[in-house]
From TrEMBL:
This is C_GCAxxG_C_C family protein. InterPro entries: CGCAxxGCC_motif, Multihaem_cyt_sf. Pfam families: C_GCAxxG_C_C. It comes from the Bacteria. Signal peptide: none annotated.
């Protein structure tokens, strides 16, 4: 098990959800901390507040792309490829995760475990795969995850 997977497991054991874990990993890679952002990410876990809608790993992955390539302050522009990066992640998620689990909604992925808010092993695999895919997309777009955004 690599260091990233161990860190994901540690964060899960601390009670963080899939979306929070993705952003925590991204922030840590950048050497940053943002409790307000992590708190806001709470609402994406379990498919939008455990409503079973779009998987929090996907929405968290899109937010992670935004952390690196989105617009954050006046006068700043989002990365030229931001929307293409999001599209690439969504297509990958639909093909890989959706095909394997019968859809991209948390209810489809977790089934009856959703009601008890019990996370299964599939969630760890999905979060790990999504984090790896986000990093690949960033690198292919000229953004080094450890270096953050240039300009």
């Amino acid at each position: 098990m690599n260091d990233e997977l161990l860190r994901m497991l540690e964060l899960y054991r601390q009670g963080f959800n899939c979306s929070q874990i993705l952003l925590l990993l991204g922030l840590e890679t950048l050497g940053k901390s943002n409790p307000d952002l992590i708190r806001a990410m709470t609402g994406l876990g379990g498919g939008l507040g455990f409503s079973g809608k779009t998987c929090g790993a996907l929405t968290g992955g899109v937010c992670l792309l935004g952390l690196y390539a989105g617009r954050g302050v006046r006068g700043e522009r989002e990365h030229d490829r931001f929307l293409l990066m999001v599209e690439e992640l969504v297509q990958w998620f639909e093909q890989e995760i959706g095909r394997s689990y019968g859809g991209i909604n948390c209810a489809e992925i977790m089934g009856e475990k959703l009601a008890s808010k019990t996370v299964g092993s599939q969630c760890g695999n999905i979060v790990g795969s999504t984090y790896a895919r986000v990093k690949e997309i960033l690198i292919a777009s000229g953004i080094e995850p450890a270096g953050g955004r240039n300009g």
